[in-house]
Amino acid sequence: MEKKQRGGPRPNSGRPPKILEIKLIEQMDAICVPEQIWNALLMKCSQGDTNALKLWLSYRFGLPKQQIDVTSNGEKIAPPIQWIGKRVAIESAKVVSEEEEEETELSKWDELKKQVRSDYQDLIEKDKQKDQFDIWL
User: Fold this and answer.
1) What's the whole-model pTM score?
2) How far is it, in rounded angstroms, from Cα 59 to Cα 35?
3) Which residues, at least 6 apart from 44, have a Cβ–Cβ distance to it below 8 Å?
4) CB 120 within 8 A of CB 112
5) 56 exposed, middle or buried (CB, 10 Å; 0-12, 13-18, 19+)?
6) What is the DSSP code (8-state) at residue 1?
């Protein structure tokens, strides 16, 4: 049994060879000399034809940078979400009312005050111990 070839090039696929492009240009030059085309375009530009002006400018200076929005149809989109390291915070998150939020904030302040008081008392105790040690020396 022979294996069927599933990949590879297909007939008439891909970019056409450069020789075909060169032949097309030669055929166009045989029909009309390029200088005549440029002169006709210049005449249209001098008459004020906007399409001719656009064509002239696009060849002279190049097309302006085009901005294409393929995702949001012109609407603002949210920045990407950073999920790395946020799993614990997301799992512990819950919806709370304003009252619960105020109570939570007050309890946090109370805990902070207690911590500051205990740290202050620890410093005072250490300072007393240091003074007692200085007396013994």
Assistant:
1) 0.34
2) 15
3) 52
4) no
5) middle
6) -
In a 13 Å sphere around the CA of 37, the CA atoms on its Cβ side amount to: 9
Give me the residue label for tokens 């069927």.
Answer: 4
What confidence tens digit (pLDDT) does each residue in 7-25 have?
A: 777 787 888 889 998 998 8
- The residue count for the chain: 137
Residue 34 CA to residue 26 CA, distance in Å, equals: 11
- For 52, residues 6+ apart whose C-beta sits below 8 A from its C-beta are 41, 44, 45
41-86 pLDDT, tens digit per residue, is 889 989 989 998 888 888 888 887 877 777 777 677 766 666 555 5
Q: Helices H, strands E: what count in the chain?
A: 5, 0
